[in-house]
């Protein structure tokens, strides 16, 4: 079993460059299915979720050439299967992003039903309702969804009940090949959706309005392969900014490789907490806060505060002078992290989707378990300032979305290592 061991109390400084965004790269990889031929993706993060999406595409008959650690050439010309199997969907829910492209190109898809995960039920009913409006017929059998668009996809108007990222993406990727115009109202506006639309437009799609609540897609007959660079990971950037806010030396920590505009609400809340950040030529610099002010945050779809930054910012609020309140509106079960942070001395009371966080003077190192991807990363960050040693287990969650997390922190001067523990005699 591998764990991440952190010795607290070492200041960090210097510059860290974030990788390409997981939440964009996965969808861009799925979108290559729409353009038979070789699409080149650069700035692809080397993380386990990307490896899983690679396996999904290869199972369908795609070939993937790894040009270098961050560049992939994906050839989808010989794809001859339309199935995302259970063992891969169970590993990564974002495998469902192949549904829209498969329907767009082949008119059919067989996708294992994703089921819930440690964040909540995570249904895909909105994906299905939207695709049905485009003319897709659905059937479910033995845990699989069978989607059939053999009668063709026809442009339509879809109003999403909630601005779902995944539903918006699947609808866009199907609608690019539909006959006529599709309008998605109450579309999600995340920067990763804009990245997807940009790549699809380069491929020949006609999408306007991505990044606004109304996305319009004029269907086309064919898409062609392109070269595209994955947008920088705003959530990884935010994670390192939080690390700097609690442990930077006087020089501060610079985070590069992302667009600060994508972190607008996070930076605003950090400012309200008394954390000083400044724009640099290539990103943002953050300085350690002597005193952190309590804050009131609620997670919302972009441009609201991202749920994927909730755990990291809870670390800051747990050290504030006063009581903060964090409301989680996106996932019903995203406070598992709070009880792990409490093992390190945090004072947090969770009631439904609200967390009341009474600031404490410091954390004490402890053995804790990553409850999920962002919670795991946040525990490592908390360990940077904790007194003594923190050992974080279940770190496979962290490696789903953070490339070289330990190495990047170590390069900043943190005392962090990945350790393989011998099997216990009880195993
Ligand atoms: C791989 C990826 O890009 N993941 C991101 C994506 O997840 P994902 O695309 O799954 O998130 P959604 O925006 O779709 O989901 C938000 C909420 O809507 C619910 N819902 C969604 C679809 C549906 O058909 N029915 C339904 O009830 C979900 O259970 C959840 O409670 O956006 C989330 C919200 O910004 C981020 O936290 C995830 O990191
Ligand atoms: C929730 C996340 O991802 P996923 O949707 O892949 O589980 C995340 O990136 O924090």
Automatic annotation (TrEMBL):
<protein>
    <recommendedName>
        <fullName>UDP-N-acetylglucosamine 1-carboxyvinyltransferase</fullName>
        <ecNumber>2.5.1.7</ecNumber>
    </recommendedName>
</protein>
<dbReference type="GO" id="GO:0005737">
    <property type="term" value="C:cytoplasm"/>
</dbReference>
<dbReference type="Pfam" id="PF00275">
    <property type="entry name" value="EPSP_synthase"/>
</dbReference>
<dbReference type="GO" id="GO:0008760">
    <property type="term" value="F:UDP-N-acetylglucosamine 1-carboxyvinyltransferase activity"/>
</dbReference>
<dbReference type="GO" id="GO:0019277">
    <property type="term" value="P:UDP-N-acetylgalactosamine biosynthetic process"/>
</dbReference>
<comment type="similarity">
    <text>Belongs to the EPSP synthase family. MurA subfamily.</text>
</comment>
<feature type="binding site">
    <location>
        <position position="308"/>
    </location>
    <ligand>
        <name>UDP-N-acetyl-alpha-D-glucosamine</name>
    </ligand>
</feature>
<feature type="binding site">
    <location>
        <position position="93"/>
    </location>
    <ligand>
        <name>UDP-N-acetyl-alpha-D-glucosamine</name>
    </ligand>
</feature>
<dbReference type="GO" id="GO:0009252">
    <property type="term" value="P:peptidoglycan biosynthetic process"/>
</dbReference>
<keyword id="KW-0808">Transferase</keyword>
<feature type="binding site">
    <location>
        <position position="330"/>
    </location>
    <ligand>
        <name>UDP-N-acetyl-alpha-D-glucosamine</name>
    </ligand>
</feature>
<comment type="function">
    <text>Cell wall formation. Adds enolpyruvyl to UDP-N-acetylglucosamine.</text>
</comment>
<keyword id="KW-0963">Cytoplasm</keyword>
<keyword id="KW-0961">Cell wall biogenesis/degradation</keyword>
<keyword id="KW-0132">Cell division</keyword>
<dbReference type="GO" id="GO:0051301">
    <property type="term" value="P:cell division"/>
</dbReference>
<feature type="domain" description="Enolpyruvate transferase">
    <location>
        <begin position="6"/>
        <end position="409"/>
    </location>
</feature>
<feature type="modified residue" description="2-(S-cysteinyl)pyruvic acid O-phosphothioketal">
    <location>
        <position position="117"/>
    </location>
</feature>
<feature type="active site" description="Proton donor">
    <location>
        <position position="117"/>
    </location>
</feature>
<dbReference type="InterPro" id="IPR050068">
    <property type="entry name" value="MurA_subfamily"/>
</dbReference>
<dbReference type="InterPro" id="IPR036968">
    <property type="entry name" value="Enolpyruvate_Tfrase_sf"/>
</dbReference>
<dbReference type="InterPro" id="IPR013792">
    <property type="entry name" value="RNA3'P_cycl/enolpyr_Trfase_a/b"/>
</dbReference>
<keyword id="KW-0131">Cell cycle</keyword>
<keyword id="KW-0573">Peptidoglycan synthesis</keyword>
<feature type="binding site">
    <location>
        <begin position="22"/>
        <end position="23"/>
    </location>
    <ligand>
        <name>phosphoenolpyruvate</name>
    </ligand>
</feature>
<keyword id="KW-0670">Pyruvate</keyword>
<dbReference type="InterPro" id="IPR005750">
    <property type="entry name" value="UDP_GlcNAc_COvinyl_MurA"/>
</dbReference>
<keyword id="KW-0133">Cell shape</keyword>
<comment type="pathway">
    <text>Cell wall biogenesis; peptidoglycan biosynthesis.</text>
</comment>
<dbReference type="GO" id="GO:0071555">
    <property type="term" value="P:cell wall organization"/>
</dbReference>
<dbReference type="InterPro" id="IPR001986">
    <property type="entry name" value="Enolpyruvate_Tfrase_dom"/>
</dbReference>
<dbReference type="GO" id="GO:0008360">
    <property type="term" value="P:regulation of cell shape"/>
</dbReference>
């Amino acid at each position: 079993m591998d764990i991440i061991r952190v010795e607290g109390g070492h200041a960090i400084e210097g510059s860290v460059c974030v990788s390409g965004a997981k939440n964009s790269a996965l969808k861009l990889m799925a979108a290559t299915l729409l353009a038979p031929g070789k699409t080149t993706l650069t700035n692809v993060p080397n993380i386990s979720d990307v490896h899983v999406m690679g396996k999904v595409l290869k199972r369908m008959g795609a070939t993937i050439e790894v040009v270098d650690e961050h560049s992939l050439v994906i050839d989808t010309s010989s794809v001859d299967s339309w199935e995302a199997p259970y063992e891969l969907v169970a590993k990564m829910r974002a495998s469902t992003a192949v549904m829209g492209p498969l329907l767009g190109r082949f008119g059919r898809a067989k996708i294992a039903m994703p089921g819930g995960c440690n964040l909540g039920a995570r249904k895909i009913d909105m994906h299905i309702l939207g695709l049905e409006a485009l003319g897709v017929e659905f059937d479910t059998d033995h845990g699989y969804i069978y989607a059939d668009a053999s009668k063709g996809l026809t442009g339509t108007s879809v109003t999403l009940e909630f601005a779902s990222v995944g539903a918006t993406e699947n609808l866009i990727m199907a609608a690019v090949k539909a006959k006529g115009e599709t309008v998605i109202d109450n579309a999600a506006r995340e920067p990763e959706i804009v990245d997807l639309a940009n790549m699809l437009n380069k491929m020949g799609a006609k999408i306007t309005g991505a990044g606004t609540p109304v996305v319009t897609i004029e269907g086309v007959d064919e898409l062609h392969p392109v070269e595209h660079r994955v947008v920088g990971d705003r959530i990884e950037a935010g994670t390192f900014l939080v690390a700097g806010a609690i442990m930077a030396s006087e020089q501060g920590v610079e985070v590069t490789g992302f667009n600060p505009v994508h972190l607008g609400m996070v930076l605003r809340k950090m400012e309200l907490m008394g954390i000083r950040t400044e724009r640099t030529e290539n990103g943002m610099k953050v300085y350690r806060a002597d005193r952190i002010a309590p804050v009131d945050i609620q997670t919302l779809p972009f441009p609201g505060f991202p749920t994927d930054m909730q755990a990291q910012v809870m670390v800051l609020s747990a050290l504030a002078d006063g009581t903060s309140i964090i409301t989680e509106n996106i996932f019903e079960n995203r406070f598992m992290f709070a009880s792990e942070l409490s093992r390190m001395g945090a004072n947090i009371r969770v009631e439904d989707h609200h967390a009341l966080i009474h600031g404490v003077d410091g954390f004490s190192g402890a053995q804790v378990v990553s409850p999920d991807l962002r919670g795991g990363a946040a525990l490592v960050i908390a360990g940077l300032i904790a007194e003594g040693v923190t050992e974080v287990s279940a770190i496979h969650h962290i490696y789903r979305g953070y490339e070289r997390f330990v190495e990047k922190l170590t390069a900043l001067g943190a005392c962090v290592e990945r350790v393989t523990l011998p099997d216990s005699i009880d195993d």
